[in-house]
Amino acid sequence: MRKCRQPDDLMSLADCSQSNAQSGQRRARRKGVRGLSSVLLLLQALLLLSTVARPALAKKADKKSAAAAAAAPDYKTRVPGTVERTLPIRSHSLFAPYVDADLQNRWFDFGGTAIVNTNKHIRLTQDRPSQAGWLWSRLPITPTGFEIEFEFRVDGKSNTLFGDGFAVWLTSSRATQGPVFGNEDLWRGLAIFFDTYANSRHSWAFPQILAINNDGTTSYDHGSDGATQSEIRCSIDFRRTDVAAKAKMTYFRNNYFELAIQHRAWDEYETCFVIRNLTLPGSPFLGFTAATGDVSDDHDIVSVSAYNALYHSPSANAPKRSRRSSSSAGSKFLRFVTTLIKWLAILVVIGVAAIAFRGWKTQRNNKRF
User: Pfam families annotated for this entry (predicted)?
Assistant: First the structure.
């Protein structure tokens, strides 16, 4: 219909008014459609921008995460994969009665204040001051992957003052008594200290379990309980436990070393620490030593079980799922923006459809008259 401009137009006044109204509605619809089209184009541009920017932001976030991980080593997270025990290592396993008819053991030597109770344990120190005892394997460990589980007991008469603790050694030398928990200083290899007496104040609780990998040039710092030499530690109350206290050491050369402790419930091991990319001396000896000073405790080794071990890495799909599930703050924000844009686009499409339907309905009603 044409628009009425003069009062003397041939059309009636009512038809003229209706024609003007319809023309205004059509112009309004065209403007609305053009506006919605502009909004759609803007949303598409934002969606394209977020798609292009996502890889760059994700890469930047990954770099930040990698830098943070390099700055602060993680000694708590377990290495993914499974460990399979294979053949037992008889030369590094020890059980009651511990000695033969000649009161000797084919695979282990003991000395210092160590006492063998053929029914119960090998007691490295009694609950008496100034004692030092040791138990060492006669042969080095030759497998490049192994798992050693040992049961121990630390207890005494006192409930408040006790010490000093015991140590486990995987070192290149053996059976040399000295000032570091009953063993020599300046060792070469890995030492794990089950320390029950704090010589200074610390921000963590005692007893503590501390690992120090030494190249033979660093002397143990008694005053700081080794805190100035290593951050590889955990606080676990392994003294006077309700269940048999056990430790499980798992090692794969050039891969990792893990220590886990059973101290709360049977067959429930708590990871103490994990050391990645650790390389022990070529064929280390296995040793257990303990010492007491002005304070004392009983330090017992009950049994030792050693096995060859194989490491099975996780499937190839597991890391991919892990990477997809783990996201940084930047990627979360990008997903939020993308989702918001998609919902806005859906709402705009619904709005355009509603306007088009309304215009079509109005036009159909006008044709009836």
Answer: Lectin_leg-like
Fold of 82-312: Jelly Rolls (2.60.120)
CA distance 322 to 77: 14
Does residue 97 have a cis peptide bond before it, meaning omega lies within 30 degrees of 0? yes
Q: Quote the CA–CA distance of 310 and 185 in Å, as a whole number.
A: 33
**How many CB atoms are located within 10 Å of the residue 40 CB?**
15
CA dist., res. 326 & res. 321, Å (int) = 9
Residue 2 pLDDT > 60 = no
Return d(Cα 61, Cα 225) in angstroms, integer: 38
Amino acid in the structure at residue 270: E
Distances (CA, A) of 248 to 41, 303, 361: 62, 12, 79
Which of 297, 256, 227, 233 has its CA nearest to residue 147?
256
From residue 300, alpha-carbon distances to 153, 208, 242 in Å are: 5, 17, 16
Q: Taking the CB of residue 102, how many other CB atoms lie within 10 A of it?
A: 6
Q: How far is CA 149 from CA 37, 74, 269, in A?
A: 71, 24, 11
CA dist 167 → 290, 291, 303 (Å): 6, 9, 15
Q: For 255-314, what is each residue's pLDDT tens digit?
A: 999 999 999 999 999 999 999 999 899 899 999 999 999 999 999 999 999 999 999 988
Residue 262 corresponds to which tokens in the numbers above? Answer: 């059973």
Give the model confidence (pLDDT) of 68-119 as tens digits: 445 557 777 888 888 998 899 999 999 999 999 888 999 999 999 999 999 9
Q: Over the range 338-353, which residues count as b (16 or more CB within 10 Å of their CB) and which as e?
A: eeebeebbeebeeebe
Kindly tell me if the per-residue pLDDT of 35 is higher than 90. no
Rounded to 5 degrees, φ, ψ at 96 are -65, 145
Burial 119-139 (b: 16+ CB within 10 A, else e): eebbbbbbbeeebbbbbbbee
Nearest CA-CA partner of 297 in 194, 148, 223, 210: 194
Alpha helices in the chain (DSSP H): 13-71, 317-325, 329-368
